[in-house]
Amino acid sequence: MKQLITALALTIAAAGVFAADAAAPAASKTLTPQQQKMSDCATANKGKTGDDYKDGVKTCMKTANNPLTQQQKMSACAKANKGKKGDDYKSGVKSCLAASAPA
């Protein structure tokens, strides 16, 4: 009987050690960029429910996944510098594009 109790206790202790080892890598796992975007979008839409939540996350993910193209950046910078002429316009657009360049 003592052997049975001892064997049972060792089995439970060993299971606890293996469970702790299995949980440790999962806790320290870093998120992929996609998972981080999803987490950020979920946080931004906290408090919404149902279709409102789904639509909010969907919209957030679309904008997070689609950075502006060079043509869209040029268009936005041209609009921002509307009314300027010559070198003034060129330097304004150049600085605008440099500011919107990825880090």
Mean pLDDT: 79
Radius of gyration: 27 Å
Residues in helices, as a percent range = over 70%
What is the percentage of strand-forming residues? under 5%
SSE pattern, N- to C-terminal: HHHHH
Uncertain residue segments? none
What is the number of helical segments per DSSP (H or I, 4+ residues)?
Answer: 5
Amino- and carboxy-terminal Cα gap? 68 Å
Assembly state: single chain
What is the overall silhouette? elongated
Count of beta strands: 0
Major sheet attributes: none
Helix-strand category: mainly alpha
Element layout with pairings:
Blueprint lengths: L1 H26 L5 H12 L5 H16 L4 H11 L5 H14 L4
Helix pairs in contact: 2-3, 4-5
Put the structure in a nutshell.
The chain is mainly alpha-helical and 103 residues long. The chain is built from five helices and no strands.
Could you please describe the fold and organization of this structure?
By secondary structure, the protein is mainly alpha-helical. It has a domain of 30 residues. It contains 5 helices and no strands. Helix 2 packs across helix 3 and helix 4 crosses helix 5. The chain is elongated and about 95 Å long. The model has no long low-confidence stretch (mean pLDDT 79).
